[in-house]
Specification:
Elements (H helix, E strand, L loop, with lengths): L5 E7 L18 H8 L2 E3 L2 E2 L5 H10 L30 H5 L5 E7 L17 E5 L11 E2 L2 E2 L1 E3 L2 E2 L6 H16 L6 E6 L11 H10 L5 H26 L6 E7 L23 H4 L3 E4 L8 E3 L3 E2 L3 H9 L13 H4 L10 E7 L9 E7 L2 E5 L7 E4 L15 H17 L9
Parallel strand pairs: 1-10, 1-11, 2-13, 3-14, 4-5, 4-10
Antiparallel strand pairs: 2-12, 5-8, 6-7, 8-9, 11-12, 15-16, 16-17, 17-18
Helix pairs in contact: 4-6, 5-6
Amino acid sequence: MAITPNILLILADDHGYGDISAHDGPSIQTPNIDRIADEGVRFTKFYANCSVCSPSRASLMTGRYPDRVGVPGVIRTHPQSNWGYFRQDAITLPSMLKQKDYRTALIGKWHLGLENENHPCKRGFDHFHGFLGDMMDDYWTHLRHNNNYMRNDYETIDPRGHATDLFSDWSADFIRTYALTSHPFFLYLAYNAPHTPIQPPDDWVERVKEREPDISQQRAKYVALVEHMDAGIGRVLDALEETNQLSNTLVIYSSDNGGQMGVGAHNGDLRGQKGEMYEGGIRVPTCAMWQGNMPKGHVTDQVAMLSDLFPTLCDVVDVPIQHEIDGHSIWQTLQGEEQDLSDRLLYWIRREGGQQFSGQCQHAIRRGDIKLLHNRPFEPLELYDLSSDPLETTDVSETDNKLYNEMRNLFQEEKQKAGSVPWQKG
């Protein structure tokens, strides 16, 4: 008999690896994210599929590398700065789960297209309550370029309140509603925190400064934005507990890319940040819990990424995948078992405009502990052995020609595989 737990998938925006208290983030307290880790499994080597937003979200929703579904870069309002179009033939996670009678909802940030055909309710979600666009210019007005992208299903709405509170409260309400039904739910809660603008409620900033008198104003605001989100996650978990659904809910927490250091984020000791293919740009805090089905407090160094969550969740609920994907199920790892994925090749891409990119791409590939990266299109390729050099201090591309050429050929093959996939509409 197939198991059909509720699924709560929480994705933060630009939440760096070092900014949870379980990873000893400076001056930060995240008791609710830590609770997920303490009651389940925490990853030390989990990756987003890109160094920026849209591609990672495309991978999460499809189990594919982002350029395989037409999203190599950020989807934006204006055509001249848009670098993706979510393919219509891409099969999404919510559409797969509906085969098992799941009720599917997205609350929060979509960022996979503003077109009618790419509205979340056209891509597998029964319900959408959130924001279609890339970012908010203000957490209180929720506008982007003076456009209102807030929707309740297809209706344009103008709710009052901080976006983080709205998304948390709407999620708790959704959970309470589904406590009364016989259907399992899949709730994808996608915060836009702690993405810029760094705009936490004032009382949260004061709370941090009172607790941490030596903290800088910039860091205090960033910590407050993360802790405010963490408190919202706590309210969502409380709603599961109050409605007696926590024991039958698989909860996963992750982020779409690393933190932006110039606005106060901290990526631990890792090199780099959001927008870069070094570890700090793509390695993210990730944990999961499901009472009675995962070991408590288990820490794994299994290498995995957002695209693996698609096959993992299909594996959990016994939905067969009959089309090509790039992700691998890590359900075995989540149950605390050994899983050998050492030979797999991981691939990252980001296409972007502006002076640093001019429409070209940055990339990375990893096989085992060997990582080849191309951080900017007009810079040389760099090669690192993460087993001996986890902080990427020593580029060995010129000293190990055999390995460099081997990885370069694998990189070339991955680029060829995506060559037939358009990433602009029309």
